[in-house]
Amino acid sequence: MEKITIKLLAKSLNVSIATVSKSFTGSHEVSEATRKRVLDLAKELDFVPNAYAGSLRGHKSKTIAVLIPEVADSFFSTALNGIEEVTLEKGYQTLICLTHEKLEKEQALLKELANGRVDGVIMSVSSETNSFDHINAFIKKLPIVFFDRVCAELKTACITTNDFECGYIATRHLIEAGCKRIALLSISNALSIISERSKGFQKAIDEYGLDTGACSIINCSQQANVNYQLISELMSGPDRPDGIVATVEKLTTEIYMACADLGVNIPNQVKVICFSNQSSAGILNPSLTTITQPAFEMGKAAAKALLRGLKNKELDLTDESTVIPSVLTVRNSTVRKK
To answer: Residue ranges of the HTH lacI-type domain (predicted)?
Structure first.
């Protein structure tokens, strides 16, 4: 099927390309009757004009899209601040697109953005993303830089933190605090960050000789009520864990609520550590021990990498990949009994 373009619309309607273009912008130079003919045909052929095309010069929109799963997570909101500090300084606008952890939404957004609406994309993949054909197709048109949740198989810049090491450090911290039955709470089998954190968890369990049957990886969901029920069941069992590693920030609330409702004391009966950037970690009761990710710095690094790639088309973006270490912040949720 022939690609639908403004030129094809103009030919079909026997009008000029300028007339079609002006019809989409609502120009007073085009009669209402002609404008209606243009819009009706466009609708019939499922043609969506590039709203940014008229403002492009030299194929530059001066806009960067940022695809992230959500903004409620403090990691992503902080990373956005880092991205915008760089892009605004360089005269670029930031278009924020939310996938809501849905692969289908991610695919649709990339397809829409590929029409030249943006110059490039900074992206953290959804928890459902287990195939990368849609991303690979986009990269053939415009550059992408990954941060946090990456697709290492694709040849571009990946801005990450030391997830494997942090999974190990978090688990080792619980072991050294006296824990022997440790559960790692996961949200996806596909995400690179969860995979690496799980491997670090397993290394610590093996290295310290803990009973692997008493230490497990629990797959949670994206729904808070489901996670609350799952954690409640986990903490109600006779062999409940005495240590929990939460791989994402959103699980914190459900852990604290389930333990409070069941009368399970943190940290005396279960110690909790979470990968989290939330500023409220220090005022929770008890205050939450965290693996704090360098979100702002990762956002800045991702933006700088993409802008360097846009400036120099010959640049190999894989050379821009970097790992920025996270930090263990010990608080009361993992304090050892005296």
So the answer is: 4-58
Domain with CATH 3.40.50.2300 in the chain: 59-161+295-326, 163-292
Q: What is the pTM of this model?
A: 0.80
CB atoms within 10 A of CB 11: 12
pLDDT of residue 59: 54
Rounded to the nearest 10 degrees, the angle between the axes of helix 17-25 and helix 6-13 is 110
Low-confidence ranges of the chain (pLDDT < 70): 1-2, 25-27, 49-59, 337-338
Angle between helices 17-25 and 32-44 (to 10 degrees): 90
pLDDT of residue 73: 82
SS3 338: coil
Cα–Cα distance measured from residue 277 to residue 280, given in angstroms and rounded to the nearest whole number: 9
Q: How far is CA 52 from CA 25, 61, 94, 116, 293, in A?
A: 11, 7, 14, 8, 35
Beta bridge mates, 175: none
Residue 50: predicted pLDDT: 62
pLDDT for res 237: 85
Supply the pLDDT for residue 38.
87
**Per CATH, which fold does 163-292 belong to?**
Rossmann fold (3.40.50)
- Per-residue b or e along 260-274, where b marks 16 or more CB atoms closer than 10 Å to that residue's CB: eeeebebbeebbbbb
Q: What are phi and psi of 169, to 5 degrees?
A: -60, -45
Contact 317, 303 (CB under 8 A): no
Q: Is the dihedral of CA 170, 171, 176, 178 positive or negative?
A: positive
Q: What's the distance, Cα to Cα, between the start and end of the chain in Å? A: 74
* Burial class, 216, CB count within 10 angstroms (exposed 0-12 / middle 13-18 / buried 19+): middle
